[in-house]
Amino acid sequence: MPTLPSEGVGQRYVKAALHTGFGGVVSRVLTGLAPVVLARYLGPKEYGIYALVLALVGIVAGASHLGQNNALQKFLPEYSVKDSRRGGAILADTLVLVSAVLVVVCAFFFFLSGWIASAIYNEPSLTGVFRFSALLVLFLSLFNLALSVVAGLQDFKSYSKAMVIRSAGFLALAWVGVWLFGLYGALGGQLLACVFGVVFLAGVSIKSVRQRFPGMVRTVFSRDILGELFSFSFPAFLAGILVAPAYWWANTLLARDRGFVQVGLFGVAFALCQLIMVVPNSLSIPAISFMSETYASPESDRFSALVGANLRLVWALTLPISLGCALFAPWIVTLLFGAAYQNAAPLAFVMSLVGLLMAINSVIGYAIAASGRMWYGFGINTFWLVVFLACSFFLVPMWGSLGLAMSFAISYLTFSILVWKCSVWLLGIVYEKLLLLTFLTGTFCALALGVGLIPGRVVRPAAAAGLLLGLAASEWKWVLTSAEKSALAGFLRRGRTMMEACFG
Fold it and tell me: Which of 176, 184, 194, 192 is nearest to 126 (CA)?
């Protein structure tokens, strides 16, 4: 649970984190179950095509918002207090600019679908799939934009409900759609779920905007406002578009070199990696909003305390989840995705540990965004991109899907070292118990590799369970403070009450 030395901001942050935590966990679990359903019905080849299509959709949707989603989460809470009229103008300008860009981008995506299918994938039959995906790009982008508005307004209860609505709709509609119409049904379920989410968010956000910026949401395309938006959004946009294209490029390289079956196997491992990040990402949704508020405080140590405490807690929370998924990867993959994907178990082991690195780095990434130093964020992400592409270029042709998994591991490990150094130097963040967490992580990951070599259907699971219990005991004794232990115990006892408070 996020903590902050200041009671006022701290209490609001914790409350927001609980809303997004419960809602995010529910929604992401539902979303995470969708690949399980789709993989079983589609099979490795068609699921590989589905994963590639979604990767391309993610690139287009991620680029279409022009970095404005993070800008809304930073500027709306800031200017709702400092200058409501300017905040309303920023909101209106952003909505108009992003909507116009979305229409143009989706039109281009639709008309270029034939070229993408033929020239890039050598599969002209995929033209119809990519054309249909243009609609998915539009509504996925609108959904993400509406989520950013609600987050900027700090209405995290509605944020959580929207995530649950979209995820539940996607799971149900994708299940029915893939059963009736195959690949098109899976994509159609994703589309309709986004439409439902956009409709819900439009209703709640209009009400919140009228309360926070009464009569002030009007376009003001002045040089001053556009300059401020550009100075933050452009580097955020550049930083954001680096990751999705790299993932798409690596999957495309894998598909062209080893076939769609290998892409499907890696897609299963990547889906498990995303499930690992459900809890830490859900608790960190309000991070940029509240870190921005704290960074503006004259007491600089409050910002450092917030980032340092949250990094430690996210690390301690994610490590047992990540290690558990790595240890039980063969059983998890077979149970969730079926025997056809059993060869994905080694990939899932590696990507489970990558999930830990992703969760840790996301906390520091939020801190960099909250400080407004987006050009530094872009430079750091560029470093990751170069390392990842270099590793993929050499390892994917050599080892196929395992090479892609190792490319993720190597690039994120080196990225973690750079991010840590930059955050200490750039933001002056003091991390608590960093060496201890690093030692525990290295030790238990090495032990997990040893457990993976133990034969036997009984001895190996027993050894894995014992290792996880040892990790949990170590973290409880040495990582958590007394106050955090009490808070965690109370949190577990009052879980039902908090769930009702979140969704009631």
Answer: 184
The size of the chain, in residues, is: 504
Q: How far apart are the first and last CA of the chain?
A: 21
Nearest-10 crossing angle of helices 345-370, 68-82: 30
CA distance 361 to 314: 10
Of 334, 193, 339, 349, the C-alpha closest to 270 is 349
pTM of the model as a whole: 0.70
Under 8 Å between Cβ of 391 and 406: yes
What does 403-433 look like in DSSP terms, one character per residue?
A: HHHHHHHHHHHHHHHHHHHHHHHHH----SS
Torsion of CA 332, 337, 342, 347, to 10 degrees: -70
> Could you tell me which of 356, 321, 352 has the C-alpha nearest to residue 438?
356
pLDDT, tens only, 169-221: 888 888 888 888 888 888 888 889 889 989 999 888 888 888 778 778 888 88
Report d(CA 76, CA 151) in Å as an integer.
9
* Exposed / middle / buried, residue 286 (Cβ in 10 Å: 0-12, 13-18, 19+): buried
Dist. CA 156–CA 17, nearest whole Å = 8
- Render pLDDT for 192-203 as a digit per residue (tens, 0 to 9): 988 998 999 988
Query: What is the per-residue pLDDT for 357?
Result: 96
Task: Report the distance separating Cα 111 and Cα 114, nearest Å.
Answer: 7
Cα 65 to chain centroid distance, Å, stands at 16
Q: Determine the Cα–Cα distance for residues 194 and 184; give it in Å rounded to an integer.
A: 15
Q: What is the pLDDT of residue 503?
A: 47
Structure tokens at 12: 């609001």
Predicted local distance difference test score (pLDDT) of residue 328: 95
